[in-house]
Amino acid sequence: MDTVVLVLMLLTAFNFLLKQTFWKAIAVGAIAAVCAVFAGLMWPYAIEQSKSQIANWLGNQPLMLDTSVILSIEVCIQMAYAMLAVHVANDYPVKPRMIVMYRFLRWFPGLLIFPVLFSGLVYLIFAFPGTSFQTIAWSYAAFILVVIPCGRYLLLYLLPEKELRLELFFLTNALVAILGIVATVNGKTSAAGVSEIDWKALLGVIAIALAGGVLGLFWWNIRSRRKEKSMK
After folding, report:
1. How far are the Cα atoms of 123, 138, 140 from residue 42, in angstroms, in the given order?
2. Residue 96 predicted with pLDDT over 90
3. How confident is the prediction for the chain on average, in pLDDT?
4. Residue 170 shares a structural domain with residue 219
5. Distance (Å, whole) CA 18 – CA 152
C-alpha cells in the first residue's frame, strides 16, 4: 500500500508539472507562489502528524474509498481537458460553450497537488529531527518555488510538441486512475502483501526507464530535425 501511494503521489506531481506546460509563464509563477506559501504555512499541522496515524489512514477502507472518489473526479477533469484540447485544435468552427469549457479545464491546476505537498512536508519533518520546523517548511517552500518553473521548462525542452504532451498527459492520468483503484481494493485482497521494499531494485528500474526515455527523446529530436532539413 505504501508503495502504491508513493507512486500515486509521484504521478500526481508529474501531471501537475506537465499541466503547467500548457500555461503561460506568469500563471506558472503565480501557482508556484501559491504552492510555496501553502507548504510554508502548513508546518503547524504537519508536526501534529505521526507515522502510526498515517498508517491508520492508509488502512482505513472507507477513507480510502472517499479518497478514490476525489481522485477519480480530478482524473476525469484532467483527461477531459486533454481530449477537449485536441478537439478545439482540430475542429472548426468551435462552439462558444466548448471554448468556455476548454478555458476552464485548461486553467484548472488540480487540487491533489496540495495533499502531495503536505505529505512531502511531513516526510521532511520526520527526516530531519532536531531542525527548526519553520526552517524545514520555508526551505521546502523555496525549493517548490524554484522546481515548478524549472520542471516546466525541462518538460518543454524534452517534449516541445503540444500534441505529444497532451497524449502523455492523458496516459499518465489514466495510470493514476488505475492505481487509485488498486489503492482502494488493496486492503481486501486475499493474498498477503510484501511489506518490505527492495529499494535497489526499484531505483534500478526507475533509472533504466528514465535512461530509455531520455535516449528515446533525443533520438526522436534528431530524427525530427533531419526530416525538417530534408524537407527544406
Report:
1. 13, 10, 11
2. no
3. 84
4. no
5. 7
> Which set of grid coordinates corresponds to residue 159?
517534449
User: Is the full-model pTM beyond 0.85?
Assistant: no
Neighbours of 186 (CB within 10 A): 18
Contact 110, 19 (CB under 8 A): yes
145 and 57: one domain? yes
CA 45 distance to own-chain centroid = 23
Which residues have a Cβ under 8 Å from the Cβ of 99 and sit 6 or more positions away? 88
The number of domains in the chain is 2
More confident residue, 21 or 71: 21
Q: Provide DSSP, 182-214.
A: HHHHGGG-SSPPP----HHHHHHHHHHHHHHHH
pLDDT by residue (tens digit) across 35-61?
999 999 998 988 887 766 666 666 666
